[in-house]
Amino acid sequence: MSPFSVFSLFLIFFVVIWVLRCLNILREYERAVVFRLGRVLKKAKGPGIVLILWPIDKITKVSLRVVTWEIPPQDVITRDNVSLKVNAVVYFRVVDAIRAIVEVESFRFAVEQAAQTGLRSVLGEVELDDLLSQREALNQKLQAILDEHTEPWGIKVTGVQVKQVDLPQEMQRAIAAQAEAERERRAKIIAAEGEFQAAAKLAEAAAVLNREPAAITLRYLQTLIEIGVEKNTTIVFPLPLDLLGGLGLKLSQASGAEGRQT
């Protein structure tokens, strides 16, 4: 084989290797940050086929998909001095690939550290009752703080959710006792309202019977019908209360007259 043929094969091999190094294929969710002689190009490339001038150009691939990261349990002391462990979930994505690579060394590590610090600082400013009852508002506040902190890095925090709150055993017993006392209070209030409404209805019924004396007789007859439906041997004779009052008055007058005679 002649030296020219060897050189030609070597040149072809080199060209093939160079083309393969210059040719890059990026997926739909990927972008390429290109550095040319150490300087970053103004626009990220991709997706699809991306051609660079190797070895002058160097590329760094960045994924634009949403990243889900679970914050490990953090020791938090609330404003009312309750110690507890809280963990959360952070959702974020890269919106500017160039800033995510140039402005911060490791954007994912930076977001994770910011999320841990923000979780402890925000939850340390609220009381335990607010943490348990206003979790959605706290999630939005955490998201706003992290989004503002990571915006210069080209990162968008799409959501933060407080996942779990671990309370001490003594605090769980105290909350259970408080909930039981609250249920008892509500039960007493409901019973009192029922008694008040029943008394009001009885007062209205008494007023109607006072205006229409014949209504009491109809009520007596209705009671007899209800008793007779049960097919028992009980016989009930309705006795007007006015009659008892008159008899009592006569008896008191007769006893008074006998006393005067004696």
Descriptive notes:
- With 262 residues, this protein is α+β, with helices and mostly antiparallel strands.
- Among the domains are: 11-62; 67-167, Tetrahydropterin Synthase, Chain A.
- It has 8 helices and 8 strands.
- It has helices at residues 3-22, 97-102, 107-123, 128-133, 135-150, 169-211, 214-229, 241-261, and strands at residues 23-26, 30-36, 39-40, 48-51, 57-63, 67-77, 83-94, 155-166.
- The strands form 3 sheets. Strands 3-2-5 form a 3-stranded antiparallel β-sheet.
- The longest helix is centred in the C-terminal third of the chain and has 43 residues, at 169-211.
- It starts with a helix and ends with a helix.
- Terminal CA distance reads 165 Å
Widest sheet: strand order?
3-2-5
> Are there runs of 5+ residues with pLDDT below 50, and where?
none
Overall pLDDT: 81
**Helical proportion, percent range:** 55-70%
- Under CATH, the topology of the domain at 67-167 is which? Tetrahydropterin Synthase, Chain A
CATH class term of the domain at 67-167:
Alpha Beta
Architecture of the domain at 67-167, CATH level 2?
A: 2-Layer Sandwich
Name the shape in a single word.
rod-shaped
Number of helices: 8
CATH superfamily of the domain at 67-167: Band 7 domain
Report the order of strands and helices: HEEEEEEEHHHHEHHH
Largest sheet: 3 strands, antiparallel
What is the strand content? Answer: 15-25%
Structural class: alpha+beta
Radius of gyration: 44 Å
Brief summary of the model shown:
The chain has helices spanning about 5-20, 95-100, 105-125, 130-135, 135-150, 170-210, 215-230, 240-260; strands spanning about 25, 30-35, 40, 50, 55-65, 65-75, 85-95, 155-165. Among the domains are: about 10-60; about 65-165, Band 7 domain (Tetrahydropterin Synthase, Chain A), CATH 3.30.479.30.
